[in-house]
Structure formats: structure tokens, C-alpha cells
């Protein structure tokens, strides 16, 4: 069967920057797909080509079996897009904004108004967009992308400006949309978000996809030791080093941290010594995978 | 989704946005009206006042002329009798009267002051013609030559008759060019165009909405101008085919919008668009005859003025609103304006870009 999104050999160049350098992937119907990558990796450019905002220099794109370029009015009502930089009609209120966008898709006024509740903006219905906070503007931008019930949703860093409650609320909204059978593609810099939401993620850097797969598989594939920490002093450092399975131990005066590739054995031994006060276990995360692949040094 | 629904809601969005923009409201609506009030106030009362003649004692020649002239002389000259010769001459010196007239025997003596050359000239001319016609009738023969006068318009064009259409032309030109270029550039730089690019609304619908909003604003400008100018203190009189100004306004707005879209499609930043708009509108307003009548301008200037679309709008509106010409007189100008609109729009469509980069 046809995949919802099929991209192959995508390339895009801006002057002497190769923003997208041979990207190939597919997204299944109903899938929740994440694109991760450091700043300037080419995530936005890739999305914009798929959405039909930009023309690729090379490569094939098919969205819902259609070509997004040139501007395809048959495809546009079926996709919803939240752009990284939100943009609204000037001097309109939240409600007017949603109604205007809604009407471009033939969405009735009532339905457009209901979107405010979905993203928690009902209290801001009569506030002009210029007066919304960064996070509120972002929520409005997401609501505008959802207003016409698209089959396929693109979100470019949707949670970038949201507070923790807003993020969790949006996760709920997105999961709900996804369980209705809609396909969601998002980019994010929050690894926890990708791990929680995405069925599969693509890790991108310098215009190329470095790794693609379900987050759990990517994490398991990474040979990173777990860290077990307990309150400082419950166990001497020397004793901790001798625990079965322990690689390394250190006490910084606040916590004792043990590094191990066999956390279950270490924890069992510690339980036997009744030394589990304040225990925390940190396994490898998607963040470790990300840093492993894209390097730890800061790139300006 | 209906195209008409998109058109309606986009127009609504633009209209609300415009109505909430205090600066735009001021510059498109209030600012030109202030000019009208100012110009109408300064130049509106320049109706040439009558010459003021003081008649010392009885001057039979003058009295006969006034009595026999069928009221014609009364239109240009006000005669006041006074017995006080010295007092009358003092008034003349102070400028309170324009001439002092007395008759001694068969001689009409006219005292005048050189302070106001125009008025003293008028008085001397008038008195001379009165004496001539008295001489002529004294011969008892019918006059050998006669003269009839026929008026083409209701007097010379009063200031308000000129300023209403031509300042309105300037107001429409700046609102049209500015509105279109700013909307286009702002929408592009702020990403609203990309947002619309993602919606199924057809591009012509987006443009049509902007045109509809501009037309509505222009008709409001027109109504306000005409209403204010008709106040008794300004005294605009609309004659015959004044309504023909409405299609003229529409054609003019279309022409200016398409010039604005051209600038908006070409300019990359708001600053460039603004500068370019001023560069187009200001010279066009001056040389296109919005601030002074071109009839009195040198020939080369009148020739140059025809390269500006505003010239045609001003002339057409002046003809139907100020000069009282018939409805057909506006057709050539409407034709030129529509031509500018079509050509401008075609180029603007070619230059159009959704995106800033
Ligand atoms: N319009 C443009 N003109 C020129 N260069 C561009 C343009 N847009 C992006 N680039 C360049 O292309 C590269 C990829 O940009 P892109 O916006 O796709 O990155 P991104 O992965 O979305 O980054 P971020 O996480 O910061 O949003 C960058 O080096 C950027 O400088
Ligand atoms: Mg980006």
C-alpha cells in the first residue's frame, strides 16, 4: 500500500549551505513520526519541502499519494501545518484568527471557536494576537493547524515555547489526534517528548538522516552504562566498587553514584545490604543516543 | 470550501485589521480631510469683493449709469453717497474705500489710491466706460458697435470646486498605493503569505479581498470629502453628472492598487516599500495637479503631468464634479486608469513571491 509520506533522495541547497543532503524515509498511515537534530540540521527545510512550501533541488516527494509541488490545492485541505515561526493576521483577536483560518477551509464558526478550548485559550478569545505571550501564540498556531481536522499534521517544534503544563496538555491532545488514526510528523529538541510520543524517530544532522527507528530500539542499541545513585554515606565507596556488576563508584558528598552495565544485579546486592535510601536509576535515554550520534561539543 | 466564503472572511480580516490601525486610519482618512479643510478655508473665500465707491454730493453721470445698467453695475460696484468730501478722501487714503467720485459740471473726477492696483484699475476702467456710454448717448445716435457676453461656466472655478476632486485624488492615490504595497510586503515578511500558501484559498481570491477592502475605504473617503466640502462654510456645488465621479474613483483605486502591488511584489522590506511609495505618490500628487491647478502651469509641466495616472483621475473628477461637464466626458480618463490597472496587475502577478527568500 502507499505510504502517507514517501521521500527519497531529497536535496536542497541555499547558496553554499547544503541544508538537506539526500534524505530518504517513509511515514506510515497513523504513525507518530519524529525528526530530531541539532539547530541547522535541516529539519525545517525537510518539512517545508514535504508541505509544499519549497521546491526540492533533487528528489521525490509524495504526500497522501500526491505531489506537494507546485502548490496542490487538492492536497492542502488534507494537511495541517504549524510553522516554526508563527504568523497571524495583524490586529485580529484569537477568536477572529481561528474563524478566518477556519473559513479558508469552510469550517463553521462554532467548530473554529471550539479549538480555543482544545489548546486552553478560551480565556484569551478577545485578546489580539500581538498581546499573546510566546506560549499562547504557539498554542494558537497549533490550533490554526488543527482547525480543519487534517488527516496529516506537521508540527515544527510545537512545544518550544510551552510551559511544562502546556507541554503535557499538548502531548495529550496530540496523542488523542493520533489515536483517531491521523498521522503526525513533528520536530523537537526535547528527547523525552520524542521518546514518549513517537512511534519512530529520525535523527538528522548536517542534512542527513543518521539513524531511524523506534526510540526504544535506538536506546537499546546504544551501549551506555546505567547509573544508580543513593544518598551519600549509606555505603562506603570502596564497598560499592566491590558490588557484583559494578564498574565504577563515586561519592560527591550528596549522592553515591555507581556506574554499571548490569543494574539489576547491583540493585539486588544493595537491597541485601539495606542500602537503597533515596535510590534512583538512570538508564540510557534517547538523549544519550542523540549526543552519541551528533557529538557533545557545542556548535555555534 | 467556497471561494466566496474565503473571499468574505479574508476581506473581513483585512478590514478589521485596517480599522484597528490608528495610524493608517489617520493617514488615509483624516489627514487628507485636514488638507481639504485647510485649503478650502484659505482659498475658499477669495471671491473678488465689489469695489467700494464713495460718491461726494451728486454725480449725475454715475447715478444714471447705475439706474440704467439693469443691476449689472451693482454686481461689481457698491456706491455710497456722502456729503463729506474731506472725510471721503481720508477713507480712501486709509484703504476703506477704493475710489471717491465727484462731478463738477461735465467733468467726472475720480480719486483713487495706488495702494491696491487691481481695484483702482477696475474703478478707473468702470468710470471710463460710464463716461464713454454717457457721451455716446448724448449724441442721440444708436451705438455703432455693440458687445454681447456669454458665460461658459458659472464664473471662474471656485477654489473648493478645484480642491475637492484634486485633493481627493491625492488621498485615493496615497491610500491605494500605500495600502497595497504595505499589505503585500508585511504579509510576506511576517509569513502570513506562507500561511495562506498552505491554505486552499486561491491566490486571486487573496488579491480580490484586498481590492474589495480598498474600494470600500475609497468610497468612504469619497463620501466624507464630498459631504465636508458641501458644508456651507466651504460651499462645494455638485452639478449634473457628479455621480460619474464614482466609477472614476473605482477605476482610479484599481490603478493605484496595481501600482501598489507592483511595488509590494518588488520590494523586499517594509522600509523599501515605504520609500518607494513616497517616491511615486508625492511627485505624482504635485505634478499631477492635486495641489495646484495645472491650467495655469507652464506648457511643459502640463505635458509631463500626463505620465501620471493621478493626472487622469484629477482631470476626470474635476470635469464632472467641479466644472459640471457631462457623464461621457469621464470615459477617456476611466479608460486610461483601467489600462494602468490591468498592465500593473499583470506585471505584479509575474513578480509575485509567496516567500521572503
Ligand atoms: N531561507 C534560507 N536561506 C538560506 N539558508 C537557509 C534558509 N533556511 C535555512 N537555511 C540554512 O539551512 C540549514 C538548515 O536549516 P533548517 O531551518 O532546516 O534547520 P533546522 O534543523 O530546522 O534547525 P532548528 O532546529 O534551528 O530549527 C541551516 O544551515 C540554515 O542556515
Ligand atoms: Mg527548524
Account of the 3D structure:
The complex is a heterodimer of chains A (300) and B (357). By secondary structure, chain A is of the alpha/beta class. Chain A has 2 domains: 216 residues, 3-Layer(aba) Sandwich (Rossmann fold); 58 residues. Chain A has 10 helices and 13 strands. A 6-stranded mixed sheet of chain A has the order 5-6-7-3-8-9, sandwiched between helices. In chain A, strands 11-12-10-13 form a 4-stranded antiparallel sheet. In chain A, helix 2 packs across helix 3. Chain A starts with a strand and ends in a 6-residue tail after the last helix. Chain B contains 14 helices and 4 strands. Chain B has 2 domains: 233 residues, no CATH class; 88 residues, D-Maltodextrin-Binding Protein, domain 2, CATH 3.40.190. The model of chain B has no long low-confidence stretch (mean pLDDT 85). In chain B, a hairpin with a 2-residue loop joins strand 3 and strand 4. Helices cover 65% and strands 7% of the residues of chain B. The radius of gyration of chain B is 29 Å and the shape is elongated. In chain B, strands 2-1-3-4 form a 4-stranded mixed sheet, with helices on both faces. The two termini of chain B are 30 Å apart. With 357 residues, chain B is of the alpha/beta class. At the A-B interface, helix 2 of A face helix 1 and helix 8 of B. The structure holds adenosine-5'-triphosphate and magnesium ion. The site of magnesium ion (MG) has 4 residues of chain A, from helix 1.
Q: Mind sketching the topology for me?
A:
The complex is a heterodimer of chains A (300) and B (357).
Chain A lengths: L4 E10 L2 E11 L4 E5 L6 H9 L6 E6 L15 E4 L11 H11 L4 H10 L15 H13 L5 E5 L7 H16 L3 E6 L2 H7 L2 E6 L2 E6 L1 H6 L5 E6 L5 H5 L4 E6 L3 E6 L2 H10 L7 E3 L3 H9 L6
Parallel strand pairs in A: 3-7, 3-8, 5-6, 6-7
Antiparallel strand pairs in A: 1-2, 1-4, 8-9, 10-12, 10-13, 11-12
Chain B lengths: L2 H17 L2 H22 L7 E6 L3 H9 L3 H5 E6 L2 H10 L4 E6 L2 E6 L4 H22 L20 H31 L2 H7 L4 H27 L15 H22 L3 H18 L11 H7 L3 H14 L8 H21 L6
Parallel strand pairs in B: 1-2, 1-3
Antiparallel strand pairs in B: 3-4
Bound molecules: adenosine-5'-triphosphate and magnesium ion.
Amino acid at each position: 500500500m502507499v505510504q502517507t509520506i514517501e521521500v527519497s533522495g531529497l536535496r536542497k541547497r541555499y547558496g553554499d549551505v547544503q541544508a538537506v543532503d539526500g534524505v530518504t524515509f517513509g511515514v506510515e498511515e497513523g504513525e507518530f513520526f519524529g525528526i530530531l537534530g541539532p539547530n541547522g540540521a535541516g529539519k525545517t527545510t525537510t518539512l517545508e519541502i514535504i508541505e509544499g512550501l519549497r521546491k526540492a533541488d533533487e528528489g521525490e516527494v509524495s504526500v497522501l499519494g500526491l505531489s506537494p509541488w507546485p502548490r496542490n490545492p487538492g492536497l492542502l485541505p488534507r494537511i495541517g501545518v504549524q510553522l516554526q515561526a508563527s504568523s497571524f493576521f495583524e490586529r485580529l483577536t484569537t477568536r477572529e484568527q481561528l474563524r478566518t483560518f477556519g473559513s479558508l477551509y469552510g469550517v463553521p464558526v462554532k467548530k473554529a471557536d471550539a479549538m480555543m478550548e482544545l489548546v486552553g485559550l478560551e480565556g484569551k478569545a478577545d485578546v489580539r494576537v500581538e498581546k499573546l505571550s510566546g506560549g499562547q501564540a504557539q498554542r494558537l498556531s497549533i490550533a490554526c493547524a488543527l482547525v480543519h481536522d487534517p488527516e496529516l499534521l506537521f508540527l515544527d517544534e510545537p512545544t518550544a515555547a510551552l510551559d511544562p503544563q502546556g507541554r503535557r496538555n499538548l502531548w495529550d491532545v496530540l496523542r488523542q489526534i493520533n489515536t483517531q488514526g491521523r498521522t503526525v510528523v513533528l520536530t523537537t529538541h526535547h528527547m523525552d517528548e520524542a521518546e514518549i510520543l513517537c512511534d519512530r524517530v529520525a535523527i538528522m544532522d548536517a542534512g542527513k538522516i543518521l539513524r531511524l527507528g523506534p526510540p526504544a530500539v535506538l536506546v537499546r542499541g546504544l551501549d551506555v552504562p546505567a547509573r544508580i545513585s543513593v544518598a551519600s554515606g549509606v555505603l562506603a565507596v570502596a564497598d560499592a566498587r566491590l558490588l557484583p556488576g559494578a564498574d565504577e563508584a563515586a561519592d560527591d558528598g550528596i549522592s553515591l553514584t555507581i556506574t554499571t552495565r548490569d543494574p539489576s544485579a547491583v540493585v539486588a546486592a544493595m537491597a541485601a545490604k539495606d542500602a537503597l535510601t533515596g535510590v534512583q536509576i538512570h538508564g540510557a535515554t534517547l538523549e544519550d543516543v542523540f549526543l552519541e550520534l551528533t557529538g557533545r561539543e557545542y556548535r555555534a | 470550501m467556497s471561494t466566496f466564503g474565503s473571499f468574505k472572511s479574508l476581506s473581513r480580516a483585512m478590514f478589521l485589521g485596517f480599522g484597528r490601525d490608528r495610524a493608517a486610519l489617520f493617514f488615509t482618512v483624516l489627514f487628507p480631510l485636514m488638507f481639504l479643510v485647510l485649503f478650502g478655508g484659505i482659498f475658499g473665500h477669495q471671491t473678488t469683493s465689489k469695489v467700494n465707491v464713495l460718491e461726494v454730493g451728486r454725480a449725475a453721470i454715475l447715478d444714471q449709469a447705475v439706474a440704467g445698467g439693469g443691476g449689472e453695475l451693482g454686481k461689481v460696484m457698491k456706491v455710497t453717497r456722502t456729503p463729506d468730501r474731506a472725510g471721503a478722501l481720508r477713507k480712501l487714503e486709509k484703504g476703506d474705500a477704493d475710489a471717491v467720485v465727484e462731478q463738477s459740471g461735465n467733468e467726472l473726477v475720480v480719486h483713487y489710491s495706488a495702494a491696491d492696483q487691481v481695484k483702482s484699475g477696475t474703478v478707473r476702467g468702470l468710470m471710463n466706460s460710464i463716461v464713454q456710454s454717457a457721451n455716446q448717448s448724448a449724441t442721440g445716435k444708436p451705438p455703432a458697435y455693440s458687445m454681447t457676453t456669454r458665460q461658459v461656466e458659472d464664473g471662474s472655478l471656485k477654489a473648493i470646486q478645484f480642491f475637492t476632486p484634486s485633493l481627493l485624488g491625492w488621498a485615493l492615490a496615497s491610500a491605494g498605493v500605500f495600502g497595497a504595497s504595505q499589505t503585500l510586503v508585511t504579509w510576506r515578511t511576517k509569513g502570513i503569505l506562507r500561511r495562506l500558501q498552505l491554505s486552499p484559498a486561491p491566490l486571486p481570491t487573496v488579491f480580490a479581498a484586498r481590492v474589495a477592502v480598498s474600494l470600500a475605504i475609497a468610497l468612504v473617503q469619497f463620501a466624507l470629502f464630498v459631504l465636508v466640502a458641501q458644508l456651507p462654510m466651504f460651499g462645494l456645488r455638485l452639478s449634473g453628472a457628479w455621480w460619474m465621479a464614482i466609477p472614476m474613483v473605482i477605476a482610479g483605486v484599481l490603478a493605484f492598487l496595481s501600482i501598489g502591488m507592483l511595488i509590494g511584489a518588488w520590494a523586499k522590506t517594509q522600509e523599501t516599500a515605504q520609500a518607494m511609495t513616497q517616491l511615486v505618490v508625492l511627485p505624482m500628487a504635485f505634478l499631477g495637479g492635486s495641489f495646484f491647478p495645472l491650467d495655469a502651469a507652464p506648457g511643459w509641466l502640463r505635458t509631463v503631468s500626463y505620465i501620471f495616472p493621478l493626472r487622469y483621475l484629477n482631470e476626470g473628477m474635476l470635469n464632472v464634479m467641479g466644472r459640471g461637464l457631462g457623464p461621457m466626458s469621464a470615459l477617456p480618463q476611466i479608460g486610461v486608469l483601467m489600462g494602468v490597472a490591468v498592465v500593473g496587475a499583470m506585471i505584479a502577478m509575474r513578480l509575485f513571491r509567496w516567500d521572503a527568500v
